[in-house]
Write a structure and sequence with these properties.
The chain has 66 residues and is mainly α. It has one domain. Helices cover 74% and strands 0% of the residues. The chain contains two helices and no strands.
Length: 66
Amino acid sequence: MIFKKESLNKFILYIISDFFYISLITFLLFSVVELIEPRFISAFINLNALLTLVVITGIITIMKKD
């Protein structure tokens, strides 16, 4: 099966866009839990790394062409 480069790029941007929304919701949820119960999430997951991931995928999502 041969893919056109254009359709493959749109597919990858769609996946990155979905990943942005999922990581943003996860970050917000983890932040709320962390505010309620300190060190509950940050003992296992570095929220700064998750925030970096959210920012990078967000920039890619904003810059994509429709």
